[in-house]
Specification:
Chain lengths: ~180, ~200
């Protein structure tokens, strides 16, 4: 990257000592966190494929061709509908028999299964509640323990964050 | 979805191409490559670490936010150095700080401010005597560079500290090639004159 030249001084002004000294002057680095501070202010573009779609869409809108494309999509979406209608017209007897079975047996069967599932869940919840409610003291103790645990976690997190902030400040100060 | 190959061996143009596809790693790579030279150039121009960091940040924000407008027929380094140099020159023109002191900026009124605006020189040498000599020479050169006109200063830093070729400096500073050569020639002559007492 840094194609430092060996020498290119003209004979008239050649001074190896100054040239050497200039080329060995140190390079400085910005403070810690510089990259992140810059990137926080940089807007990164969308990926190329997304920008291509956006660009293509913008072009369509600008040139008024968007209606043409929308029409093509609408016509395209009609094709499967027409195909299904044609298929149904060719097999009316089979479709009629299937619909008849669905109404007579399929739907009541599905309903019975769903109802059995819901009843089972409600029954389990009832059983659990009735088992726990008599032990009110145990419930209270569990709630208190949970609150103590929550408070301890919050205090620990606060301590950790304070230590991290102090380290960061000291880094900046020494810099 | 980004294809991110080995960024460390990629050319600037390739990295920029990935950056224009929104890859954060490519942005970080450009920052990693150019933060030292850009910061060093601006720091040598304005002689204030805090200000140099602000101007460097502005330079990168400007460049990275306009990355999709970068034209690959130009060198990326020329583009970023041009923006960095313009930022420094604009600041110097605003503040009229053409002549600067190694011991701190002339407008530094408190000891803290003097310390903040003085250049911190490197100290990695073999022995205390060599370290002292190198420090002394480095101090004198930094001092002498600080006394050059901003145009000469930018040319000499880019040529002899950053090692940029003449044509790239001309492109960066929007100057004819002949003018760049003249500026560098005059800057060397002035440096030689200013450093003469040290070398006697």
């Amino acid at each position: 990257m840094n194609d430092r030249p060996s020498t290119d001084l003209s004979p008239g002004d050649e001074d190896p000592a100054i040239h050497r000294a200039l080329s060995t002057l140190p390079a400085w680095t910005p403070g810690p966190g510089f990259e992140n501070r810059v990137l926080a202010r940089v807007w990164r573009p969308h990926p190329l494929w997304l920008r291509r779609i956006e660009g293509y869409w913008g072009e369509l809108v600008e040139t008024g061709q968007v209606w043409l494309v929308a029409g093509a999509f609408a016509l395209g979406s009609l094709i499967p509908i027409i195909a299904l209608t044609a298929l149904a017209a060719a097999h009316t007897a089979e479709i009629g028999a299937f619909v008849g079975w669905l109404v007579a047996e399929g739907i009541p069967l599905a309903w019975a299964a769903t109802w059995a599932f819901i009843s089972g869940v409600v029954s389990n919840v009832n059983t659990l509640a009735s088992a726990l409610l008599p032990n009110a003291r145990a419930l209270l103790l569990a709630a208190v323990a949970f609150l103590v645990l929550l408070a301890s976690c919050a205090w620990g997190l606060h301590r950790t964050m304070s230590a991290a902030s102090a380290t960061r400040s000291s880094l900046h100060d020494t810099h | 979805m980004h294809y991110t190959p080995d960024l460390s061996t990629a050319t600037d143009q390739q990295v920029v191409e990935w950056a224009t596809d929104g890859a954060e790693a490519a942005y970080r790579e450009l920052l990693r490559r150019y933060q030292r030279p850009v910061f060093s150039l601006i720091y040598r121009m304005v002689r204030d670490r805090e200000l140099a960091e602000d101007l460097t940040q502005e330079t990168f924000v400007k460049v990275l936010n306009a990355i999709d407008r970068y034209r690959p027929e130009y060198k990326f380094s020329s583009w970023i150095f041009k923006i960095a140099n313009n930022a420094a020159i604009d600041h110097l023109r605003r503040k009229e700080l053409d002549t600067l002191s190694l011991e701190g900026r002339p407008d530094a009124t408190t000891p803290d401010r003097v310390e903040a605006t003085a250049l911190q020189l490197g100290d990695a040498t073999e022995s205390p005597l060599e370290e002292l000599e190198a420090r002394e020479l480095g101090n004198q050169i930094e001092y002498a560079i600080g006394r050059l006109r901003p145009e000469y200063r930018a040319c000499i830093i880019m040529r002899h500290v950053e090692g940029r070729p003449y044509d790239e400096i001309a492109e960066t500073l929007d100057l004819p090639l002949g003018t760049v050569k003249t500026y560098i020639h005059r800057a060397r002559a002035e440096l030689k004159e200013m450093l003469a007492p040290l070398r006697e």
